Amino acid sequence: MNVLFRGAYWNLAERYTDMIKTVFVSLFYSTIIPSSLFVTATAMFTTYIVDKYCLLRMWERPPMYDETMAITSRKMIVICVWIHMVMAMHF
User: Fold this and answer.
1) Per-residue pLDDT for the chain (91 aa), expressed as one digit of tens each?
2) What's the predicted TM-score (pTM) here?
3) By CB distance 3.0 to 4.6 Å, which of 2, 12, 13, 40 could disulfide with 26?
4) What is the largest CA-CA distance in the chain?
5) Which of 40, 21, 31 is nearest to 80 (CA)?
6) Nearest to 47 by CA among 30, 31, 68, 26
7) Which pLDDT score, from 0 to 100, does residue 48 have?
8) Closest Cα to residue 55, out of 89, 6, 22, 10?
9) Residue 4 pLDDT
């Protein structure tokens, strides 16, 4: 591999928002369409595999991050679960 090759730019916050968006849409509609959970699981697994490959082979080395993004995304997932419960009671 060429030493001058730095890799493509990527943004961790964008990856987190894509994951949270996928989980939110899945949980929001899972009461109406229960098979959406299987589609979401497949999408999340595919995203994991592709991101892992890109992180190891294609993207540039990430800067040092702290835990604030992970903590914030965890809070957003909890909010998604609460919205799912409200929608389940509504339908």
Assistant:
1) 554 567 777 888 888 888 888 988 888 888 888 888 899 999 999 999 998 998 888 887 777 878 888 888 889 889 888 988 888 888 7
2) 0.69
3) 40
4) 57
5) 21
6) 26
7) 93
8) 10
9) 52
Q: Which amino acid is at 80?
A: C
**C-alpha angle 80/81/83, rounded to 5°?**
65
Rounded to an integer, what distance in angstroms lies between the CA atom of residue 38 and that of residue 60?
32
Hey, what are 56's tokens? 């190891």
The residues, any chain, with a CB within 8 Å of residue 22's CB and separated by 6 or more, are 40, 43, 44, 47
Interatomic CA distance for residues 24 and 18, integer angstroms: 10
Rounded to whole angstroms, how far apart are CA atoms 71 and 8? 26
- pLDDT at residue 7 in the model: 73
